């Protein structure tokens, strides 16, 4: 029986392209069997890439995708315990609803009724021999990998020679060009659009001499450019160029060794799956058979009933609404009995009312079938409504993994706090004794909110708009002036001005622009986090 905990494990999962662009970096996620997990983040954060790697449509650059302890990253799509529901449904337009649903059943197999003991024993022998062979191959691969890791460690020590090199250790050509363009934009802003980042003939000659001496005499020093009479941004560009090209030989060696290591890792994945695939190939010919037409019909009818498509079996996709097409896509994925259902933004093309209906349908199917669901979405409400676990992503990295309630109430960073719902965020300093200073005022917070902070720590504190109450000025913790109100049906969105800060309040009470009121909140409604947003994250540091 598969383990309930950590049934699906993504370990150090990374996807990078040949130009050096990293889509996802070092992703580590554990998913229990039967969980409903959502990968949540803005467009371009890498969530769909992760889903494609789990499904087998993309091969990871490195890392592992383990199902029940076995790395499946080398398995083809049709041999993985997954089924995918795509964003655009991907239905066959020339097939009816029934034909779309039964398409995958043509490849399904079930055991024969009467199997001779000899055939069974032969199957066991094949599995046993394959297991022994795989163990020997994996042991040999692991020895080679250990040797490569030692070589990689030696090269990585070369990055430590200079602090400037260590700072840009992970930079590759794509990032170097992006940073060069950043300096060029700054140069344009300073001196006009006709300016360019020039490298003088003298500096090119110095580069050539440096490369030659490193190759012939094995020197380990960067080029010394002539930076006289250069502007600030050209100087910074040459500084970046100096250290980038200095570390290029290390990069080339590391990339070559890493590529070899990853190819061995993929080979290890193949051998891990070798016993199971050997047994399945044998069973396909001697133990299992294809489904009969009557068996296919029974399964298809059950699925039609499950997703409420009764009466639409003979219709074509073009005759169905978006919600009905999504039901067909769900039925086609579920009928092949996957262990893991992958959902790639399946509700994004639906209108609000149909989307809510399909959210309830997904929740119902998950509760009834008990499968592991993995949903990709950028819709925060959808993620919080459907999931047992939410994985918040940004720029190819995991920001936080938690339950929907903890993600919303206790975000670990300013980015998560501002991305999930609406939030009032302020810079402050923890003064000890459950007191936070902000804008020359002292506010009381709960002991739990500041338990991990030392006195005089720079912090961010957050209050959700719905946790703030509008009261009379004398009863408020602070006094504010209302600058705008927006009626949104159930709630009023009220913008308030306090000193130089705007505060958002969501309440059932009505108010008018210009009114002076007090704002009140409970101490346990304030969430405090470490202030990590120091400096300009776009600024390049040497």
Q: What does the overall shape look like?
A: globular
Radius of gyration equals 30 Å
As laid out across the biggest beta sheet, the strand order is 6-9-10-3-11-12
Biggest sheet features = 6 strands, mixed
- Unreliable stretches covering 5 or more consecutive residues: 534-542
Mean pLDDT comes to 90
Helix proportion range: 40-55%
How many E-type strands?
Answer: 22
SS-based class: alpha+beta
**Percent of residues in beta strands?**
15-25%
Alpha carbon gap, first and last residue = 53 Å
Please tell me about this protein's structure.
By secondary structure, the chain is an alpha+beta fold. It is 41% helix and 23% strand. The protein contains 14 helices and 22 strands. It has helices at residues 47-55, 97-102, 117-158, 163-167, 173-191, 201-217, 232-286, 293-306, 322-334, 352-369, 380-386, 404-409, 414-419, 447-450; strands at 8-16, 22-31, 36-40, 62-67, 70-71, 82-85, 109-111, 288-290, 340-344, 372-377, 389-394, 397-402, 424-432, 435-438, 441-444, 458-463, 469-471, 478-487, 492-498, 501-507, 516-520, 526-530. A six-stranded mixed β-sheet has the order 6-9-10-3-11-12, sandwiched between helices. A five-stranded antiparallel β-sheet has the order 15-14-13-16-22. The longest helix is centred in the middle third of the chain and has 55 residues, at 232-286. The chain is globular and about 85 Å long. Residues 534-542 have low confidence and may be disordered.
């Amino acid at each position: 029986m598969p383990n309930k905990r950590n049934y699906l494990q993504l370990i150090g999962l990374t996807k990078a392209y040949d130009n050096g662009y990293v889509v996802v970096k070092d992703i580590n996620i554990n998913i229990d069997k039967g969980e409903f997990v959502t990968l949540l983040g803005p467009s371009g954060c890498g969530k769909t890439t992760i889903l494609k790697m789990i499904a087998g449509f993309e091969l990871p650059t490195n890392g592992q995708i383990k199902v029940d302890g076995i790395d499946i990253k080398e398995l083809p799509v049709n041999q993985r315990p997954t089924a995918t529901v795509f964003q655009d449904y991907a239905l066959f337009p020339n097939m009816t609803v029934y034909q779309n649903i039964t398409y995958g059943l043509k490849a399904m197999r079930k055991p024969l009724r009467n199997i001779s003991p000899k055939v069974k024993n032969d199957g066991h022998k094949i599995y046993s021999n394959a297991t022994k062979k795989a163990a020997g191959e994996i042991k040999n691969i692991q020895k080679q990998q250990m040797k490569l890791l030692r070589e990689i460690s030696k090269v990585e020590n070369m990055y430590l020679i200079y602090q400037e090199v260590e700072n840009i250790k992970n930079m590759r050509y794509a990032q170097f060009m992006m940073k060069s363009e950043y300096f060029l934009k700054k140069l344009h802003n300073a001196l006009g659009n006709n300016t360019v980042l020039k490298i003088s003939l003298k500096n090119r000659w110095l580069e050539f001499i440096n490369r030659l001496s490193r190759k012939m005499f094995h020197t380990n020093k960067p080029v010394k450019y002539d930076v006289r009479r250069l502007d600030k941004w050209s100087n910074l560009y040459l500084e970046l160029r100096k250290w980038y090209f200095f570390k290029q030989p290390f990069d080339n060696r590391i990339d070559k060794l890493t590529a070899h290591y990853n190819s061995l890792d993929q080979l290890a994945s193949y051998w891990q799956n070798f016993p199971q695939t050997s047994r399945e190939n044998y069973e396909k010919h001697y133990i299992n058979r294809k489904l009969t037409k009557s068996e296919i019909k029974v399964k298809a009818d059950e699925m039609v009933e499950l997703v409420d498509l009764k009466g639409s079996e003979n219709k074509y996709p073009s005759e169905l609404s978006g919600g009905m097409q999504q039901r067909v896509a769900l039925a086609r994925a579920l009928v092949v009995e996957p262990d893991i259902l992958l959902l790639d933004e399946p509700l994004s093309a639906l209108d609000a009312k149909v989307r809510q209906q399909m959210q309830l349908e997904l929740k119902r199917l998950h509760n009834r079938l008990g499968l592991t669901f993995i949903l990709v979405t950028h819709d925060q409400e959808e993620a919080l409504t459907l999931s047992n676990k939410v994985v918040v992503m940004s720029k190819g990295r995991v920001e936080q993994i938690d339950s929907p309630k903890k993600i919303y109430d206790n975000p670990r960073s300013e980015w998560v706090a501002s991305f999930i719902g609406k939030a009032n965020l302020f810079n402050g300093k923890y003064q000890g004794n459950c007191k936070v200073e902000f804008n020359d005022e002292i506010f009381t917070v709960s002991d739990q909110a500041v338990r991990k902070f030392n006195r005089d720590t720079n912090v961010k504190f957050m209050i959700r708009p719905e946790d703030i109450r509008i009261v009379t000025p004398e009863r408020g913790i602070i006094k504010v002036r209302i600058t705008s109100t927006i009626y949104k049906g159930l709630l009023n969105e009220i913008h308030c001005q306090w000193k130089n800060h705007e505060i958002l309040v969501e309440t059932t009470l009505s108010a008018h622009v210009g009114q002076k009121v007090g704002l009140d909140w409970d101490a346990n409604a304030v969430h405090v986090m470490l202030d990590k947003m120091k400096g300009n994250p776009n600024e390049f540091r040497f």
